[in-house]
Design goal:
4 domains; three-stranded antiparallel β-sheet; 5 helices; about 10% helix; rod-shaped; EGF; Multiple epidermal growth factor-like domains protein 11; signal
């Protein structure tokens, strides 16, 4: 009697476990039998797809519920004895979705309760493998998407994470830029270059650490500020310009008669000599003309030019009227 009862108990368990099965991988699949309406219109669908057609349910599977958001049934990839296997979400896996398979990069730490990476500053993404970036050159660009108001459009927000403020280049793991450089906010830098340093003036390099300025005509380079101190008679960022005023109103009345007026930006811009931005001196005008560019230079003046044949930069010096020499830089 006991043996008979035990037999029926075990048989009932097996039947309960085996009963709710789709017998074909076509159940709910496309191509296949994607619509439940086919359960009533195509005679062979219902006998082969009892779970898909609702004749049984995986909710009563004797193995019990799945964990961590997993569900049983409804997956065409699971059929036959696997019909009611757990369908796990995210990076959960295992028979009951009890195993977190997520690995965090760049020092990120897995929260075992949620199977989510807690990323260190400057890293983003499900596994902390991403840095802040815009994935489209139109972010912040015109023509393109120039205004942050456009971030209300889903595809703009998705493509322009840095531009839309979803992440910040201030957290870039490479650290800060030097010499007044800053990261982010430059439409020309996008993709993996989104957070590259934007260097001011003649600073260059990964961290704006390299001064690329060359001082001509005896000018002295201050490597700390990347600026030239020009000798008397010369002017400009690289001392290649003659020190002179560029407007007849400098020191004139009517005009700009007083040096006090040099505090006005357009006066200072036009009156370098008058405003003592440079020191005037007698510079002999020799009328050297560069054969390639056609630009005029004065005796003693130096300039840089590119040799397109040899692909080198040369430094040229005006020696006398209609005479200049060039040497490789």
């Amino acid at each position: 009697m006991l043996t008979t009862a035990l037999f029926f108990m075990l048989t009932g368990y097996v039947l309960a476990q085996d009963y709710c099965q789709n017998l074909s991988q076509n159940c709910g699949a496309s191509p296949g039998w994607p619509f439940q309406s086919m359960c009533d219109t195509v005679d062979y669908v219902r006998p082969n797809c009892p779970e898909f057609c609702g004749d049984c349910t995986c909710a009563t599977d004797p193995r019990g519920p799945c964990l961590n958001g997993g569900i049983r049934g409804g997956n065409p990839a699971n059929w036959g004895p696997n019909t009611c296997d757990c369908n796990c979400v995210g990076n959960w896996a295992g028979e009951f979705c009890e195993v977190c398979t997520l690995t965090c990069a760049n020092g990120g730490q897995v929260d075992p309760a949620t199977c989510v990476c807690v990323c260190p500053t400057g890293y983003y993404g499900d596994d902390c493998s991403e840095t802040c970036k815009n994935t489209d050159p139109k972010c912040g660009a015109s023509p393109g998407w120039p205004l942050t108001d456009m971030c209300t459009t889903d595809y703009v927000e998705e493509a322009c994470q840095e531009f839309c403020g979803k992440c910040s280049c201030a957290d870039d793991p490479r650290g800060p830029c030097l010499n007044g450089g800053n990261r982010g906010g430059n439409p020309a830098n996008w993709g993996d270059n989104t957070c590259n340093c934007n260097c001011p003036g003649y600073w260059a390099g990964d961290f704006c650490e390299t001064c690329t300025l060359h001082c001509f005509n005896g000018g002295q380079l201050d490597a700390n500020t990347c600026t030239c101190t020009c000798p008397a008679g010369w002017d400009g960022e690289d001392c290649s310009d003659v020190c002179q005023d560029s407007n007849i109103n400098c020191g004139a009345n009517p005009g700009w008669p007083s040096p006090d007026m040099c505090s006005i930006d357009y006066v200072a811009e036009n009156c370098h000599a008058f405003c003592s931005i440079c020191t005037p001196a007698n510079v002999v005008i020799g009328d050297c003309t560069d054969a390639d560019s056609g630009l005029p230079y004065t005796v003693g003046q130096m300039w840089a030019k590119h040799d397109p044949i040899r692909q080198v930069t040369m430094i040229c010096t005006c020696m006398a009227a209609n005479s200049y020499t060039c040497v490789d830089a």
